[in-house]
Amino acid sequence: MSKPTSSFRSKIDLAFSGAVVLASVLAASVLLLVVLFLLWESWPALRETHGIRFFTDPGWFPSAGELNLLPMAAGSLLVTLGAVILAVPLGLASAVFSSFYAPPPLAWVFRRLVELLAGIPSVVFGLWGLVCLAPLLSNLGGSGQSLLAAMLILALMILPTVALTAGAALAAVPAAVLQGAAALGLGRWSMVWNLALPAARRGIVAGFILAAGRAIGETMAVLMVAGNVAAFPKNLLDPVRTLTANIALEMGYATSSHRSALFASGLMLMLGVSSLVIWSQWRNRSLPYE
Question: How far apart are alpha carbons 167 and 66 in whole angstroms?
Fold first, then answer.
C-alpha cells in the first residue's frame, strides 16, 4: 500500500482541527447557557431585592420575605476551607509516599485503594458520617451533625482527588532530573522537597483547585451530616447549612421569589467556582517554569 500523500494528511489535519474547534465551541456554549439559565431564573429575586437583601436581611425566612444567603455562603466557604486544609497535606503525603518511598507492589496496591476511595458514592460517605462519625463527635458536644463533621466527610471525599492529581504531577517529573540529583549525592527527602515538588507544583495546584471545586459543590453528604441550620456557626460543633444543601432541601416546594432566590444561590456558587478557576489560572501563569 502506498503511503498517504501530504495532501491527504493535510485534509486529515484540517478535519481534526475543525472537530476540535467545534467541540470547544460546544463546550463554551453549554457553559454560557448554564450561566444564562441561572441568570434568567434568579432575575425576579435579583430585581426585587436589588441583590442587596441577600446580604442584609435578618435571616433566611422565605415565607416572611427574608432572603439572607450569607449564613449559607459562610457555611459553604467554611466547610470547603476546612476540608481542603485537612485533605491537601494528607493527599500530598500520600502521593509522595506512593511515588518515592513505597516499594512498587505496595505503591500499586495503594494507588488502587485510593482510586477505589474516589469511586465511592457521596451518599455512602454521608451514611457513614451520619451513623458512625456524628455519634463520636456528639461526645464533644451537640448532636454531632456539625461543621466539623461536614469538614471531615468532605476531606475524606476530596482526598483521592488531591492524591491522584499530585501523584500524576510527580510522575511527570523527568527521571533524568532525579537521577542526576541522586548521582550528586542528594538524599531522597532532599530530592522530593527541592526538585520533585517544585517541578510538579503546577499539577499539584491544579489538583487542589479540582478538590476545592468538588468540595464547594458537594450536596448529599454535607446535607446528611452538617445539621442544616441556616445560621452562622459559632464553633466547629455547631450545625451549619451550605448553599448546595439549601437548594436540595427547599427546591421541591419553593415558589415565586423563594424559588428565584434558590437559583440566585446557584448563581452565587457558579461565580464562586469561576473565581476559583480564574485565580488558579492566574496563579499558574505567575509560577515560573522549572
Answer: 47
pLDDT > 70? residue 287: no
Of 90, 91, 89, 92, nearest in space to 192 by CA: 92
What pTM did the predictor assign? 0.83
> How far apart are alpha carbons 266 and 52 in whole angstroms?
17
C-alpha cell at 96: 509522595
Backbone angles phi, psi at 61, to 5 degrees: -135, 80
Cell of 81: 476551607
What pLDDT, in 10s, does the model give residues 274-284? 887 787 777 66
Find the length of the chain.
Answer: 290
| 281-284, Cβ contacts within 8 angstroms, sequence gap of 24 or more | 283/205, 284/202, 284/205, 284/206
Q: Average pLDDT for residues 27-31, to the nearest whole number? A: 88
Q: Does an H or E element contain 117, and which?
A: helix 104-118
Residue 50 sits at the vertex; the CA angle it makes with 252 and 264, to the nearest 5 degrees, is 30
Of 237, 239, 275, nearest to 72 by C-alpha is 239
CA–CA separation, 32 vs 38, rounded Å? 10
Mean pLDDT, rounded, for 109-128: 89
Contact 195, 59 (CB under 8 A): no
Separation CA 156–CA 87 (nearest Å) = 7
Return the C-alpha cell found at 69: 444567603
Query: pLDDT band at 198, cuts 50/70/90?
Result: confident
Could you write out the three-class secondary structure of 48-105? HHCCCHHHHCCCEEHHHCEECCHHHHHHHHHHHHHHHHHHHHHHHHHHHHHHHHCCHH
